[in-house]
């Protein structure tokens, strides 16, 4: 990976207090997140594990302001996400990165243009944005594929582009929802290596929802979710 330590950003802390989210109607309510509290230190890495339906994705969506909590408090760095108004939320969303199981790249755009998508379009800064995209593509091992379309890349390479895109706005927090779920195990291992390396270089706080025990074991800590609650917290060696 290219040495980008000069760019090392500041990860942000994530603090949740009694966060709740239900879906459905009054007759058929599902408590997807049912009173979650946690403190996740700036620059650290945590895996969210637990069975399908235990609330991992919903929790990431609440923290990332993709969905709104019904109750409780979510603080990310200096932003109280649960109290923020629309404009503040829009600004907040630009300060976090998201990586999904399905890479969600735009098929008609090159790798470089996909990475540049989150940057506010500004003709005067187009050259700087392209340079930043190329730097991040180099950091994820794709220096020579900047001009390739997603269809010309393997699954692992597409996920690398998605990770570069998530990092382009220098987020203090990266939320990853099953980032290795669509990849074979050796490619998945490379993606884990990359995420942990990026955390070490940039200091970005990482929260990773995963069914992959190998990934969870390598994070600094694991939170096991059950029925929308935190059932257990396991401190790992982070290695
Ligand atoms: N938009 C929605 N509308 C209704 N119910 C939802 C919605 N999103 C999630 N749920 C429900 O909330 C619960 C938690 O779902 P969530 O996707 O957060 O779990 P998960 O642990 O991420 O599962 P998986 O590992 O399968 O991705 C489930 O019962 C799910 O069916």
TrEMBL record:
<dbReference type="InterPro" id="IPR003593">
    <property type="entry name" value="AAA+_ATPase"/>
</dbReference>
<dbReference type="InterPro" id="IPR017871">
    <property type="entry name" value="ABC_transporter-like_CS"/>
</dbReference>
<dbReference type="InterPro" id="IPR003439">
    <property type="entry name" value="ABC_transporter-like_ATP-bd"/>
</dbReference>
<protein>
    <submittedName>
        <fullName>ABC transporter ATP-binding protein</fullName>
    </submittedName>
</protein>
<dbReference type="Pfam" id="PF00005">
    <property type="entry name" value="ABC_tran"/>
</dbReference>
<dbReference type="InterPro" id="IPR017911">
    <property type="entry name" value="MacB-like_ATP-bd"/>
</dbReference>
<keyword id="KW-0547">Nucleotide-binding</keyword>
<dbReference type="InterPro" id="IPR015854">
    <property type="entry name" value="ABC_transpr_LolD-like"/>
</dbReference>
<dbReference type="GO" id="GO:0005524">
    <property type="term" value="F:ATP binding"/>
</dbReference>
<keyword id="KW-0067">ATP-binding</keyword>
<keyword id="KW-0813">Transport</keyword>
<dbReference type="InterPro" id="IPR027417">
    <property type="entry name" value="P-loop_NTPase"/>
</dbReference>
<feature type="domain" description="ABC transporter">
    <location>
        <begin position="14"/>
        <end position="238"/>
    </location>
</feature>
């Amino acid at each position: 990976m290219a040495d980008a330590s000069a760019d090392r950003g500041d990860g942000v802390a994530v603090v949740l207090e009694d966060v709740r989210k239900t879906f459905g109607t009054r007759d058929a309510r599902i408590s997807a997140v049912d009173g979650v509290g946690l403190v996740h230190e700036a620059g650290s890495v945590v895996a969210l594990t637990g069975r399908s339906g235990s609330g991992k994705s919903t929790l990431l969506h609440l923290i990332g302001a993709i969905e709104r909590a019904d109750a409780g408090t979510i603080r990310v760095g200096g932003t109280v996400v649960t109290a923020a108004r629309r404009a503040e939320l829009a600004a907040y969303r630009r300060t976090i990165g998201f990586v999904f199981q399905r890479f969600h790249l735009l098929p008609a755009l090159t790798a470089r243009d996909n990475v540049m998508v989150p940057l506010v379009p500004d003709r005067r800064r187009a050259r700087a944005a392209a340079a930043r995209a190329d730097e991040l593509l180099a950091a994820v091992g794709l220096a020579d594929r900047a001009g390739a379309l997603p269809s010309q890349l393997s699954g692992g390479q597409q996920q690398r582009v998605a990770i570069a895109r998530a990092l382009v706005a220098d987020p203090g927090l990266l939320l990853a929802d099953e980032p290795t779920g669509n990849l074979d195990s050796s490619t998945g291992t490379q993606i884990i290596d990359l995420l942990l390396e990026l955390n070490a270089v940039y200091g970005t706080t990482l929260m990773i929802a995963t069914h992959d025990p190998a990934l969870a074991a390598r994070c600094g800590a694991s939170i096991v979710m059950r029925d929308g609650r935190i059932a257990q917290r396991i401190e790992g060696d982070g290695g």
